[in-house]
Amino acid sequence: MASSEAHISVRGVTMAYGARVIQQGLNFDVNRGDIFVIMGGSGCGKSTLLKHMLGLIEPAAGEILYDGQSFTRADTATRDAMRRRWGITYQSGGLFSAMTLGENVSLPLQLYTDYSRAEVTEVVAYKLALVGLGGYESYYPSEVSGGMRKRAALSRAIALDPQILFFDEPSAGLDPISSRLLDELIVQIKESMGATVVMVTHELPSIFGIATNSVYLDAASKTMIACGDPRQLRDHSDQPVVRQFLAREAAAEPEAEA
Amino acid sequence: MSPPQAPAYQLSDGPGQSATLSLSGDWAQGQEPVDFRDLRPELVALAPRQLLVDGDALGRWDSLLMAFLLQCHNYCRAEGIELDVSPLPESARQLLRVATTVPPHERPREPRPGLLQRLNPLRAARGALRDIAESMAFLGDLGIALLNLCRGRSNTRFTDFRHFCYQSGPDAFAIISLTSVLVGMILAYLGAVQLKLFGAEIYVANLVVIGMLREMGVLMTAVVMAGRTGAAYAAQLGTMQTNEEIDAITTMGVSPMEFLVVPRVLALVITLPLLTIYADLLGVLGGAIVAGGMGITLLQYVSQIEQAISMTHLLVGLSKSVVFAVLIAIAGCRSGIQSGRGSAAVGNAATEAVVTALIYLIVADAAINILFQHLEI
């Protein structure tokens, strides 16, 4: 498989909690080097889809492939090996509150590399400097602001130089300037590391600012109704709901809410 | 792919006050890394004004190179050396630019108490006094909240109270049954050995019934409930503090004391005496099992108990149980409400709740016993 082709493939995935189907018939590819956005209204299953891609929830049907290799059918050891190439930040950061920022970032390094203690310290200093938190090693997550926590989480996610970065609402709850800086940071880090980015967000400035590819999940029809460059979708999508979402308009027809 | 080469650097003197740092090899994970501290003395010795970093012979690289470069950058900035990284690969330059946009933060020095100061008994005493004062304030707030409840102007919800009663009462039956039967048996064994020396085995019944009713029934139940319910209260309230639920309650104009603490305290005040009566019964039953093994018939045992039992013993135990209930609930709720935010803080709050409750229990039990001794109850 050529490197310019699909990095992540979602094939016929159905997501369900018990008998309640959240989304079905999901089919899309994330290409290498994409900044791929999963979007949709609240409650449509964006975060659930991300959790499926991360293997935190198993799909009810279908499978997810990374570099053409099935993640869904892989055994635990293979999954762990694949996960080691990922960096993930969670909606509320997921930083360990009992550890300082420095310890948070050094944990994956201590677990998965053979760096000496001094090297870990240096790499941690560099990773924190990358997100503008140089010198904050000894702070606890509760001692820094929400935006700094998000950046610290990003720093932990990139600790192992991952090939794929997953973000669950990276800029939710940030002011527009911090949010934009975080977006730029994601782009810069992604470009210099050559990573693929998958993010869940419904922040329109982020979507138009950095996304190169996207999928729109519809809560009403319980499936994806659009896929592609979000700027294209805003102007040329054949789905009115998608155009309204991206143009930030109220639904024209009241039944669209049903 | 070419075989990996160990990373290396060479510092060479250039024209004027410039120097060149040539990097070669694979600066990636799996290689013997280079320590910036080895380079520092060379740089100090050469003392250049300009430093050019050359990466022509650079192989693969990852964060190890960047960590090294960042240290070079920080050193150069501190020494006023001009650092030129233009021959390096574009992505490495970009990463270095991102990493150095924000100057490193310097943590303000907070005065930390020295060893002598920390061991100062006056300081420890002040801390303890403050702790007691806070406890009294909490107790006072609770009193006001209870007064409001009596006046019918409280925001305490009956459904919460019922829920907590269920949680701290019927849900605890299994563990209370186990502990009290065993404690009854232990008391009986303890007495049996000694009483046998005097041929007075029958008085095992007296020992068990008085021991359970006055002391062991209520104390064991309280200890179990401190671990079970006190810790649960602290964890619940601590998590609510973390989720800003307590802030939400306060800003709704509702006192957290009335809304959260009062139903919990009242629930425990109702259930602990009831559980104590239950524990007393099972303890006496446990004693009967041991007595039966010693050849005392059930009839003898019961008739002996009939002589030994008195309302006073039961009331002593019950009055203790009410005091203990208030103490456990206060220890749990106070630790929970005053908990910090985050998983570690909630864990600390739960630990603190149980430890405080146990200390309160033992001290209060001793105090009550001394009091009753003097009152000849």
UniProtKB/TrEMBL annotation, chain B:
The keyword Membrane applies. GO terms for cellular component: ATP-binding cassette (ABC) transporter complex. Residues 1-23 are annotated as: Disordered. GO terms for molecular function: phospholipid transporter activity. The chain crosses the membrane at residues 172-190, 202-226, 259-278, 284-302, 314-337, 349-372. Keywords: Membrane, Transmembrane, Transmembrane helix. Pfam families: MlaE (PF02405). SUPFAM superfamilies: SpoIIaa-like (SSF52091). The keyword Nucleotide-binding does not apply. This is ABC transporter permease. It comes from Parahaliea mediterranea.
